[in-house]
Write a structure and sequence with these properties.
CATH architecture: 3-Layer(aba) Sandwich
Strand content: 15-25%
CATH superfamily: NagB/RpiA/CoA transferase-like
Amino acid sequence: MDNWKEWRREKRAELTTRRATITQEQRRDWSAAITSLLKKGFPSFQKSAVAFCWPHRGEYDPRPLMDFIHECGGTLALPEVVNKNEPLGFRKWWRGAPMKIGAHDIPVPQNTDPVTVRAIIIPMIGFDQQGFRLGYGGGYFDRTLVAIMPRPLAVGVAFEILRVDNLHPQPHDVPMDFVVTEAGIYRPTIKGLELISAEECAAESVLGTR
């Protein structure tokens, strides 16, 4: 596709508008379902360093899951834009951590310790049948996922109504390792997204074996 940038701009606007039509009750219920699936499907997160994104513009709200992982002994981090064309940095977060307003008016921890993360829960404006993610267009997560070694587990989260057939991935695009919606946990395959059980996911997503 020659005009993929323009196509994505239009698709981004379309899906952002679609997400804005979700009622508060739907967003609450769907977020709770995603949180439950993440708890069951990724138990290794409970004792590891996991990055989240502060909920923005109607995205999935990960804060209940963050509280759960913190209570289990895990380390939480939020991303920070260091420079526009560089990978993201991650800083430790906990309830009551000092915060500031960062890039795009999103809260980030203020000068807390840097964290080397093993997994990232990544919000998606949209996602396709191959597990590719449509974000806000900055390319931050694509750069970050290829820069960190070993590469963190990438779990994309979104509501099911934001699924599209094909996002026309480009060479710089990095697919998610798993996609989680309120409808279930998906594993990208050559044939497309495959619905798997929480037990299958837990066995495949053990951090330290990647």
